[in-house]
Amino acid sequence: MKLTFKSPFWWWAVLLLVALCLLSVALAQKEQEPTRLAVIAFLMAIFLSMVLLIYQRAFTERRRLEDSWRASEEALRLSEERYHSLVEQMPDGLDRSTPDGKSVEVNPALVKIPGADGREELSQADRKTQIHDGILQDVTARQLAEDARRQSEERYRTLIERLSDGVYRSTPDGKFIEVNPAMVRMLGYASKEELMAIEIKKQLYFEEVERNVVVDQLQRAGGDKIDIFRLRHKNGHEIWVEDHGQLVTDAAGNTIYHEGILRDISARRHTEEALRESEERYRSVIGALTEGVVLHGADGRIIACNASAERILGLAAAQLQGRHTADLNWRARHEDNTPFPAEAHPAVVSLRTSQSCTNVVMGIHKPSGELAWISMNSQPLLHPNESKPYAAVASFYEITERRWAEEALRESEERYRLLAENSLDLIELLDLNGNVMYASPSHYYVIGYTPNELVFQNLFAFVHPDDAPKALLAVNELLDSKTRKTLEVRLQKKNGAWIEMEALLSGIPGPGNLVHRILFSARDIAARKQAEEHLKSSLKEKEVLLKEIHHRVKNNLQIISSLLNLQSGYIQDSEAGAMFKESRNRVKSMALIHERLYQSKDLARIDFAEYVRNLTTHLFRSYGVNAHAVGLEIDVENILLDIDTAIPCGLIINELVTNALKYAFPPGAGGKIRIGLQRENHGGLALSVSDNGAGLAPDFDFQQTESLGLQLVNTLTEQLQGQMEIARDDGTTFKIMLHPHHGVESRKNF
Questions:
Q1: CB proximity list for 520: less than 8 A, separation 6 or greater
Q2: Mean pLDDT value across residues 126-141
Q3: What distance in Å separates the CA atoms of residue 606 and residue 587, rounded to the nearest whole number?
Q4: Buried/exposed code over 138-160 (b: 16+ C-beta within 10 A; e: otherwise)
Q5: What is the DSSP secondary structure assignment for residue 616, as one 8-state letter?
């Protein structure tokens, strides 16, 4: 025990020391041996203080020992109480016995232990009961737990060994700690030892970075993650695995090892790839379809659609998704224009009845207000072993144009039916054998048979035997060439009389564009035949009369020409004789026109090319021109001219050729005359007469000439609404552009 200022002995020692000090000071002041007395007083004070301190320490120690004894007794009492409580409550048995083996104290737990009623019985108790310093412990439960744990570990190890999935444990640096047989088989190794000897990063992964990626993802996931990646098989090919992996860490968060379960999903991945490719092909096919395809959910709402559905319905996919078949905006209609109820929609019917619907025609309104007609099919989609569809697929195509075509066809058929029933001509529909399939009502009025009497009868039974071969030939040609055939046949009336008909055979195409029906129409031509015969007779008479007129005009002109020739024989003046000669040639040119018309089959038009050759031949002979000295070139198209155009053109050529023969070539000189006549693009005629002779004088004006011939040429040109030009290069060329109102036609060679 320490001495403190709170102790009374301390204060007594201090007071005694102070008193002695005061006494020493008093004695010193009286100077009675001050030094010795002061020292003695001081030493006595110290001695007395030490005595007091020793006494105080002894007193304090005694009190401490007394307090300690009392505390020990209390602690012993509390310890005995805790001991007794512990002994009573402890699960182990407690036995206190004398050296001779007599039990002094036992606790309740000992009594509960089997075979523990006495020392002898206790020694013969279950071997699982042990005695430790008088304490018996029942380890039966612990032993059972250890056995269960051992059996569980055995079952766990057996399970791991027999798993079809690979189980592994590896170090962070990439070495296997433990693997199961399935892991060895999965990676293609011969033994567990061979697999555990490899370096994971280099031999199990194709790239080391792949291992790092797997570990990084596992760490970011908090050390537990399901991942899919590829590994290298021992033979080098890749296998795809699903890894249920985790990181095992210590208390500091450092990775101790990796462990997990690997499942080979290569086959599943290949199946998924095949399924993905199949889905892509399916989507491509659905997307390429011209038909609209819509997927309806179980509630009838649209889930998905293809591009054709968007085009046909006039809505984008985003607008269609979620839209219900009962949406009033569709304004669906039946073919008879009555409202189409939502519950009758094919997709709704398939969802309700689990049955497919086909060729349901309905009209819907697009957002633009246009009414579109579609033909729809629907098919329910069901899970295996379920009867209620989870969705329905509706496919449809637009038939608006087809419907319009059907309406047009119906209207056309109605019009043709009305025409056939109200026509006076005979109209029949025949099969390829000539059997009547339809006959118009007009048959009764023309040949006396009703349509019902003719149906299923053969047409050739009513054709005159002499006309049957050509009728059969016409039918065969129709089948071969598919072109319409016209022929005249005689049909027998109901009263036995024969009626002459003009028939038209037309082919009706069928599958493969082949004729599969024949349309026969015939008209009574008896009156027309009589009129044609009368007209032919009348035309024959007129042709004879017209030829006679041309013949007489030609003869009269020949007489005039002969008279002029006779009269010129009495004229002594050469100039007057030349005038008579020119007049005779003019008359001859007109007479040639009538001669050609008289000899031609066409009494209205003349072959002008042939006429020009005859006219120039006559002129060369008339002027005695040597054909070897002066050549003639004629370039006239095959043109037919009527008499009103041919005579003026002939007179113009006559005058210009005569002028060239008289003045272009001096006696003994040679040259060439060229005559051309071509049709222009605008419908006019380009007539040219040229020579390479001496040419005209530079100051010659053909508009102011006194020559009768050129005056006649100017007059005739104006009559034909033409314009004349003269070129003086290398001789003389007269070019006349003629614009006759009519009477010009290209000649055809028959």
A1: 426, 427, 428, 429, 430, 459, 503, 504, 505
A2: 52
A3: 18
A4: beeeeeeeeeeeeeeeeeeeeeb
A5: H
| 694 neighbors 700 (Cβ within 8 angstroms) | no
DSSP string, 575-590: HHHHHHHHHHHHHHHH
Token digits for 60? 């304090």
Q: Which residues contact 5 (CB under 8 A, 6 or more apart)?
A: 11
475-490 average pLDDT score: 86
- The total number of structural domains in the chain stands at 7
Sorted by sequence, the CB contacts under 8 Å of residue 507 that are 6+ apart come out as 478, 479, 482, 484, 515, 517, 518, 519
Say if residues 246 and 224 touch (Cβ distance below 8 Å). Answer: yes
Same domain (yes/no): 627, 563: no
Choice among 3-7, 417-421, 510-514, 666-670 with the minimum mean pLDDT: 3-7
Segment 638-646 shows an average pLDDT of 78
- DSSP state string for 342-402: GGGSHHHHHHHHS--EEEEEEEEE-TTS-EEEEEEEEEEE--TT--S-SEEEEEEEE-HHH
- Answer yes or no: is 82 within a domain: no
Residue 230, in any domain of the structure: yes
Q: Are residues 68 and 114 in the same domain?
A: no
Q: Which of 83-92, 104-113, 691-700 has the lowest mean pLDDT?
A: 83-92
Range of the domain at 558: 525-600
Residue 436 and residue 376 share a domain: no
**Quick check: 603 and 546 in contact, CB under 8 A?**
yes
Question: Are 178 and 238 within one domain?
Answer: yes
Residues 223 and 334 occupy one common structural domain: no
Q: Which of 600, 626, 652 is the last residue of a domain?
A: 600
| Angle ∠(300,305,311) on CA atoms, nearest 5 | 120
Q: Closest Cα to residue 261, out of 196, 333, 164?
A: 164
Handedness of CA 23, 29, 34, 39 (dihedral sign): positive
Residue 493, domain CATH? 3.30.450.20
Whole-model pTM over 0.85: no
Structural domain contains residue 671: yes
pLDDT of residue 555: 65
Q: With 90 as the cut, is the pLDDT of residue 548 above it?
A: no
Task: Return the H-helix or E-strand segment holding 131.
Answer: strand 129-132
The rounded distance, in Å, linking the Cα atoms of 176 and 225 is: 19
Q: Which of 498, 500, 518, 499 is nearest to 508 (CA)?
A: 518
Residue 633 in tokens: 């070139």
515: nearest Cα among 486, 475, 487: 475
Q: How many residues does the chain have?
A: 750
Q: What is the DSSP string of 284-337?
A: HHHHH-SSEEEEEETTSBEEEE-HHHHHHHT--HHHHTT-BTT-GGG--B-TTS
Q: Quick one: tokens of 619? A: 């002129």
Q: Is residue 87 part of a domain?
A: no
What pLDDT sits at residue 490? 92
- The strand pairing partners of 360, in sequence order, are 376
pLDDT tens profile 144-200: 778 777 887 787 778 778 878 889 989 988 899 889 998 899 999 999 899 889 988
Longest CA–CA separation in the chain, Å: 232
Side chain identity, residue 204: L
Q: What are all long-range contacts of 286-295, with beta carbons under 8 Å and residues at least 24 apart? A: 289/395, 290/397, 291/395, 291/396, 291/397, 292/374, 292/395, 292/396, 292/397, 292/398, 293/393, 293/394, 293/395, 294/320, 294/347, 294/393, 294/394, 294/395, 294/396, 295/391, 295/392, 295/393
Residue 124 pLDDT grade (very low, low, confident, very high; cuts 50, 70, 90): very low
Same domain, 163 and 133: no
Section 359-374 average pLDDT: 89
CB-CB contact of 675 with 616 (8 Å): yes
What H or E segment, with its residue span, contains residue 604? none
Extended beta strands in 254-291, E state: 255-264
Question: Tokens in use for 264?
Answer: 């080979």
Give the tens place of pLDDT for each residue, 247-260. Answer: 888 888 888 888 88
